[in-house]
Amino acid sequence: MPQASSTPAPELSPRFCFNERLLRDFLSLSRSTIDDSITQNVNALFTPAREGFDPSSTSQRQTDSRAGRQIDTTACQNFKDKVLFPSWQTRSDVLTYCAGVATSPDPDDPDLLLRETESAKDRERVVDERLDPYSARFFPREPRTESLANVIRNQRTVEEIIRARTWGIVSERCGGSSEGWEGALNRWREQNQR
C-alpha cells in the first residue's frame, strides 16, 4: 500500500480565505487524507512477514491489536516527519494566514456600503415596542472579517481535537511517547527550520 502524503498547500490570498467553502474544503480534504484515516495509514507501516509466516499465528484469534504488532520505530518516525507533521504544519500555516486576514482591515468588502446604509437607516428608525414588539429586532450584517474570524476559531478547535485523537493512535501504535502532540510538532518545527 503506498504511503499517504499530505495535501499540498493552497495558494494563500485573502480571496482564498474569504471563500469560506474553499477554506473548509481544503481543511477537510487534508484531515481526511491523514487524520481521518490514521489507523489505516499507521497499519500500512506494519510489515508482518519480516520473519516469515508462522502457521501457529492462525491457531487462535488475536483480539489485542497491539499483540506482536509494534511498528518499526524508523517507519513511524519517517511517517511523522514526512507526512503527519508537514500536513499539520500546512493546515497551521493556512489558519494563521487567514486569521491575519480576518484581523486586517478589509477595504474590498463587497457588503461595506450596504452595511453602512443599513446602519444609517437603523439610527433613524423610531421604535415603539408597544405597537410592534418585533420592530426592535434588527440583525445587522456581519462584516466578512468577523465571519472569517469565527470560521478560523471553530476550525482551530476542530484541529486541536483531531490532532489529539491522531496523536493518541500514533503514540499507541508506534511505541508510546509521553510527549504530547504540541511538543512533538514544535520539536519537528525546530529541526526543520535549520
UniProtKB/TrEMBL annotation:
InterPro entries xref list: MIX23, MIX23_fungal
Region (Disordered): 48-68
Residues spanning the signal sequence: none
Transmembrane regions: none
A GO cellular component entry from the record: mitochondrial intermembrane space
A Pfam cross-reference name: MIX23
Name of the protein: Caffeine-induced death protein Cid2
Origin organism lineage: Eukaryota, Fungi, Dikarya, Ascomycota, Pezizomycotina
